[in-house]
Amino acid sequence: MKDLDVRGQACPLPVVAVKKALDEGGPLRVLLDDGAPRENVRRFAENRGFSVAEAPCEGGYAFTITGSAAAPAPTAPAPSGRGTVMLIGTDRLGDGPEELGRLLMKNFIMTLVETSQLPDRMYFVNTGVLLTAEGSEVIEALTALGNRGVEVASCGICLDFFQKKDKLAAGIVTNMLTIAESLVTAGSVVRI
Q1: 11 and 104, same structural domain?
Q2: Superkingdom, according to UniProt (predicted)?
Q3: Does residue 97 sit within a domain?
Q4: Does residue 114 belong to any structural domain of this protein?
Q5: Where in the sequence numbering do the catalytic residues fall?
Q6: Which domain holds residue 146?
Q7: Nearest to 123 by CA among 96, 90, 148
Q8: b/e string for 95-127 if b means 16 or more Cβ within 10 A?
Q9: Are residues 60 and 144 located together in one domain of the fold?
Q10: Both 98 and 162 in a single domain?
Q11: pTM, rounded to two decimals
Q12: pLDDT tens per residue across span 137-166
């Protein structure tokens, strides 16, 4: 069994290091911090068909990852080489006045629910994650998009930065490795 210590590393380094180690094969013991690294590494491994056993250890957690890679779980954002990915990096639309930009973003997302052509995945980064957290005026619309099959996911490190991870109200938490893989394999990318 290989040992890997990724404590103290910022997103996406723990997931990238675990991916490389798992690509080499064999069971893996990973030492990692609580919070986003713990959540992201677990989700990454389980979505690829590995079993994850966890135990607290000094300075964080120890994961024992076993099994072999399988097809991603149905709920995992799976790079498909087709489909549309929407990257939303702000809570407003356009470069004009802030109030107008927020109104435009709200109207854009609410209107998107009514369109016949939807993106396959919507990734929220930077201040875009504020749209997926409690208090956002578009939670109902994002939930409706999710119910229509759109993967709605927010960057975990961004949620942590704005202290909104425990206030996520629409979609799931994701990591930069998943976002990057999805962007480079998408049929088309729309950046908002």
Answers
A1: no
A2: Bacteria
A3: yes
A4: yes
A5: 11
A6: 84-191
A7: 90
A8: eeeeeebbeebbebbeebbeeeeebbbbbbbee
A9: no
A10: yes
A11: 0.73
A12: 999 999 999 999 999 999 999 999 999 999
